[in-house]
Amino acid sequence: MSTTATMGDMANSTVEFYPKRAGGAEANNHTGDFGVTLTELRDLMEMRGPEALQKIQESYDDTEGLCQRLKSSCNEGLSGNPEDLEKRRQTFGQNFIPPKKAKTFLELVWEALQDVTLIILEIAAIISLALSFYQPPGEDLEMCGNVAGGAEDEGEAEAGWIEGAAILLSVICVVLVTAFNDWSKEKQFRGLQSRIEQEQRFAVVRNSNVIQIPVAELVVGDVAQVKYGDLLPADGILIQGNDLKIDESSLTGESDHVTKSADKDPMLLSGTHVMEGSGRMLVTAVGENSQTGIIFTLLGAGEGEEEKKEKKAKKQDGAVAMEMQPLKSAEGGEVEESAKKKSNVPKKEKSVLQGKLTKLAVQIGKAGLVMSAITVIILVVYFVIETFVVQGRTWMAECTPVYVQYFVKFFIIGVTVLVVAVPEGLPLAVTISLAYSVKKMMKDNNLVRHLDACETMGNATAICSDKTGTLTTNRMTVVQAYIGDQHYREVPDPGQINSSALETLVSAIAINSAYTSKIMPPDVEGGLAKQVGNKTECGLLGFVLDLKRDYTPVREQIPEEKLYKVYTFNSVRKSMSTIIQLPDRSFRLYSKGASEIVLKKCSSIVGANGEARGFRPRDREEMVKKVIEPMACEGLRTICIAYRDFPADPEPDWDQEADIVTDLTCISVVGIEDPVRPEVPDAIVKCQRAGITVRMVTGDNINTARAIAAKCGILQPGEDFLCMDGKEFNRRIRNEKGEIEQERIDKIWPKLRVLARSSPTDKHTLVKGIIDSTVLEQRQVVAVTGDGTNDGPALKKADVGFAMGIAGTDVAKEASDIILTDDNFSSIVKAVMWGRNVYDSISKFLQFQLTVNVVAVIVAFTGACITQDSPLKAVQMLWVNLIMDTFASLALATEPPTEALLLRKPYGRNNPLISLTMMKNILGHGIYQLVIIFTLLFVGEKIFNIDCGRNAPLHSPPSEHYTIIFNIFVLMQLFNEINARKIHGERNVFDGIFSNPIFCSIVLGTFVVQVVIIQFGGKPFSCTPLNVEQWLWCLFVGVGELLWGQLIATVPTNQLKCLKSAGHGHSTDEMTEDELADDEEEIDHAERELRRGQILWFRGLNRIQTQMEVVSTFKRSGSFQGAARRRSSVLSQLHDVTNISTPTHVVLSTANASAAPGNAGGESVP
């Protein structure tokens, strides 16, 4: 779907949209006494490079001129006056793209009504109703046989309509409950979405002060500061930039980074990522008028037609999914290429749980369908033989309605068996469990962006964590220094250092750091000073303050505009250099960076007298041994600070970086400490106990990394493990041709614990290598933490990507699945706990539901075959269905997690969903319930000394006999629900029951409703009131479930050889036909349109709609992968808007189809 839409025609098509929305064209040009109109700005932002520069010069002289017309100042920014800001919003729009309208409650009701089984029930109920009002002519119904006879008196005959009405009523209940659940789910996600949006802030200059404001509050005329890792929230023009490189692939599809500068190409577009450098931009377009906004408006228009097409396809939670799938951009070219290739391959493999559940649901659905069909056939055949063969009657026209009524009754029984058999509560349980967990995980500092990440995390077997900020506090302080031939073990007294060397050092640190990094006074008296900006730079600035000097005067003397050239820090350089012009017109370069890298470029060093002297390779080796390695072994990060002078004439060629940043003079090497977070060692022990291997992947040098890893407990003394750096890692995993080989990676990763001096590519290679590995029988499930822009590919590749909420760049957050709002490793352990809890909640629900399924289906089936009438009536079955589906999923899915979850190994991808213990419980309780119910069915009337309810004719009044059976059945389920709280064969089923108020209230509530149904349900529920003694017997049998549960727990599972676990995950190789049919849906839209007819036909043959429904509901609730698909199909509609009128192309390419261009402020917009 690599749609190519040219900028020109985007403009054309948007011109049509806007005036309509703004109320006439004149509204569009309403300038609100600014010297420039909205349309002019939009036209300007359509241009690129030299063309744009020319336009700015012709119309406004320069950017400064445009700034004045917008009543703003390039240096001081806006005044921040609320009236002025409001006026700007009125004139140029707000920085907000309105999300797609949420589905109304009625729409959700309509969707819930599409359920196939419900439709069948509705039809049956309507036929039943119609027939009950039909009185056959003539009173001589005797000749139709005893079929119609029996205890039917006048009043009863008129009550015939009740059953049909009751079924309709219960269908309405089920529909309302489903719709309400969908509605609250959608509401929750919208809340989550708005929280993600509020989290994102951006730095702007107002009244000469740099402040952070929520992205939605940006207005045209603001001066915003952009830096490495930002996702641009609005369009703007660069006022001043240092080495700024932008990834525009989300708009253009070109993966090469674009260099931006005020004099060559100053146009910055929303939704693009800053990959390097920093700068300031003048905001010129926000919200719907920004480039991203324009494209989204186009998409919005395409959406209408899309909806109509989608109607044929399965119903889906489009809105929610769209909201949740935030905009991702392609990371680099290789990803793009592979994405193009992959566009017609099924998107992402299903999450572990989903795969298993889908399979299980299909199996159960099939079994249910077969059972219900057999039930109907047996009932009909039996009836026909009994009436026409045994009694030898002939079919008479006037008897037809009576017979039809019988057939309708049989049909209703069959459908009820199906309704009970199909576990439509599964998707609900998954959704509730996930939604509940997501809500609670917020409190544990996990902001979940993709729902299935929550559950995948429970299966994690490996965590690749960053060091800085995750395992450590990210509060950098200089604790050792080497200055003037002297190694100081603590910060030296300024008097001990040569004054000229000290001045050079202060200038080097103050100037060669981003001016956004600064030390602020503490919030509380006596607290630690606040570090704002890059933490390493803050550590160095703190060092300046410790030396009793101040960096602000230096910066005031040389403001940011006067910096001659900046080579910003990136993961390749691992250093940063700044060039300034001195008063005598000569130049000086200051450089700082990883000590072993910068020292290699040094040819002299400042001695004790403040003079530079030669620095030979031999001296360097000695320094590494005596200074750098001892610092690193104490876990310090070593930074070297150096400088170099250049003559004014001839001016060097600044673009030849290799010739400029060399031949340096070393001023000092400092050791920066970043203490390990106090709670991390415990968290790592928990992970290791839970069967999760923690690996540290860091950019620091190997000695520092090893020291920190030992402090954290990642490296245990006496263990056999590997620590290596990026170079060695690459040497070992590549063959002679330099290609990466999986078997080489397989030799390394199982023992690898620390990867130091690693580049983002190394991180990605490691993650991919572990995921693709087949050395262990279980496929590894890998979680990765990252905060930098360059961590994007690894975060995306991982099964679960964690981004840092505080230190993380926007790019990392976009690529991640979960955001750690406190940047703390111990929050990952909480995520594991919640993930495992989701898995266990689903298992508890399954254990409960399958017991009910097995019993209800067998009872209805055998009862129908032997007594021609199901002991459980349609309405009663629907009530049971409601208890076991909706209520049980609520009760069991909201169990809070316990620490005990971390004491077992991960289940793994191939483990069955229903373990042997659960199978034992299901069958054990099933046997108990069946024995009780069949005993009651066949000899119950003797035990309780009541009338027999078997073989009752049509429309006969409800019997006590069948009421007792129904009551006991429901009470057994209620007590079994308490048993279902434990799935690993624990004895104490009441353990922690009061910590879950939802569970208690549901069990009590169900009990109260059951009493009401029995005592006052009457004809609609086919119940008759019971006396106290009968109630006590019912309760006694119910409580028996708990005692029986203890008995089952005593039987050792491993003795039961005959049991088979069910619901296995599947290896990637075997694709069953069912899954292929699933994956059919995951193919991109163009193909889907072509093949929709075939697929529907194929599906109609291959799988009955019931199961499809279960599966697709699953997809809706469990995963948000649908979003990317739907969005991609919408983008493909942009094909219609292509018209190659201007040479500039916007290619919305596959790699970011999931991404649709990142929009203003990362608000993800449908």
From TrEMBL:
InterPro entries on file: ATP_Ca_trans_C (IPR022141), ATPase_P-typ_cation-transptr_C (IPR006068), ATPase_P-typ_cation-transptr_N (IPR004014), ATPase_P-typ_cyto_dom_N (IPR023299), ATPase_P-typ_P_site (IPR018303), ATPase_P-typ_TM_dom_sf (IPR023298), ATPase_P-typ_transduc_dom_A_sf (IPR008250), ATPase_P-type_domA (IPR059000)
Cation-transporting P-type ATPase N-terminal domain sequence ranges: 57-133
GO biological process, one term: regulation of cytosolic calcium ion concentration
Reaction it catalyzes: Ca(2+)(in) + ATP + H2O = Ca(2+)(out) + ADP + phosphate + H(+)
EC number: 7.2.2.10
Coiled-coil stretches noted in the UniProt entry, renumbered to this chain: 1069-1096
Membrane topology (UniProt): Multi-pass membrane protein
CDD domains linked: P-type_ATPase_Ca_PMCA-like (cd02081)
Keywords recorded for this protein, A-Z: ATP-binding, Calcium, Calcium transport, Calmodulin-binding, Cell membrane, Coiled coil, Ion transport, Magnesium, Membrane, Metal-binding, Nucleotide-binding, Phosphoprotein, Translocase, Transmembrane, Transmembrane helix, Transport
Protein's cellular compartments: Cell membrane; Membrane
One GO cellular component term: glutamatergic synapse
Domain of life: Eukaryota
GO molecular function: ATP binding; ATP hydrolysis activity; calmodulin binding; metal ion binding; P-type calcium transporter activity; PDZ domain binding
Pfam family, one: Cation_ATPase
Keyword set includes Transmembrane: yes
Regions crossing the membrane: 116-134, 161-180, 369-390, 410-436, 922-940, 998-1018, 1030-1051
Family recorded in the similarity comment: Belongs to the cation transport ATPase (P-type) (TC 3.A.3) family. Type IIB subfamily.
Function, as annotated: Catalyzes the hydrolysis of ATP coupled with the transport of calcium.
NCBIfam families linked to this entry: ATPase-IIB_Ca, ATPase_P-type
Name of the protein: Calcium-transporting ATPase
UniProt source species: Clupea harengus
